[in-house]
Write a structure and sequence with these properties.
There is one protein chain. The chain is α+β, with helices and mostly antiparallel strands. The protein folds into 2 domains: 215 residues, FAD/NAD(P)-binding domain (3-Layer(bba) Sandwich); 154 residues, D-Amino Acid Oxidase, Chain A, domain 2, CATH 3.30.9. The strands form 2 sheets. Strands 1, 4, 5, 6, 7, 12, 13, 14, 15 and 16 form a 10-stranded mixed beta sheet that branches. Strands 2, 3, 8, 9, 10, 11, 17 and 18 form an 8-stranded mixed beta sheet that branches. The longest helix has 25 residues. The chain is globular, with a radius of gyration of 21 Å.
Length: 432
Amino acid sequence: MVWGFNHYYSLAIFMADFFLGLIINTVTSLIMDLTSGYPFWLIKDGLPFIYPKLQKDIHAEVVILGGGISGALVAYYLVKAGVDCVILDKRTIGLGSTSASTSLLQYEIDTALSVLLHKAGVENAVRAYRLCDEAIDKLEAIAKETGLRFYEYRGSLYYAANKKHVPFLKEEYEVRKRNGFKVSYLDAGSVKDQYGFNAPAAIFSDHAAQTDAYLFTHCLHQHNIKRGAQIFDRSAIVKIEEHKNAVKLSTTEGNIIVAKKIVYATGYEVVNFIKKPVVKLKSTYAVASEHFEKQVSFWKDNTLIWNTADPYLYMSATNDDRIIIGGRDEEFYDAGKRDKLIEQKSEQLVNDFKKLFPHISFVPEFKWAGTFGSTKDGLPYIGTYNGKPHSYFALGFGGNGIIFSQVAGEIIADLITGKKNKDVAIFSFSRT
């Protein structure tokens, strides 16, 4: 599809209105500025679909708060189980954390398996990794079912940022291999020969993928609508009341939603709903290059690349011949402070890339920042909280948010429909 001037002009007007809306909405207690700059996927896809604003009182079996990738996947599994769903988002659909996602899909959790064994126990740690591994194929099947064209399998290369990290990397390789994950260990010579950059060692896995989380979200919503789901955006909730047999929600415009169950898929904004400190909010950065002409492969098989640094550097190649680099996280959440660093962080990320691939001329075109969250063990929080019988949470924190959202969708659908799910305890609030 070729975009003309009017398309770009309309998008520019939309972006201006969007950011102005964010400024205005900060006067409410439920708004959090999750992203800034020009996220690549949002610019690329624009507004593929329009959703109505809630303007009446409604009833449903389940109401889902949050219309990003997490809410969309939870709704997918609930609709598939025959559950009547309503999805509400206070923003335009997809304009929270989902639009800022770099859309890498890996079974590796931010906490290495060799470390997670000691935090979660061997059985739970391996099972968590296995669920993430399985999610890659399940998401591919869902992408096909919902009409998403961009879902590509890739390899994943996890390299040692320096020589001091080699012993850790060797241990991680042995732990994964011992527990049935298909991995290969590469020494410095193999990394250089195969991928063209210098690193002391690396672990290669052939099971990873890349997609477009923003467009995937819209495809899921369209699929769910055809199967009876109702989706409303620009519909902020100002009050939530849990009664004996139902939950009652009130919007800013006075409309009432009554449902049997509520699912919180609000991501990092969960701090507005629960008191327990389950996540540490951070700021993260990303930059996308200009389109490369006649570029087929930037490095071997355009494998997803990331490293052992903290925060880690990662990079990928898009399906329209661009390179995305991300990382340089900061240990704070402050929208103004975060946004002031976009130019500096983008320059640092480009320099990080050039140190690895000096022969590739990386010219930045899109730069953005977003909110990122980490938990003590790197795992998401999924399920019930604080004994509330009508409330469920799908909180896919960490770098594996899309993967965790798929896992959450299955677990929550089982819980709401009364099925037993053996994985609930792994991601429960009571684990920490």
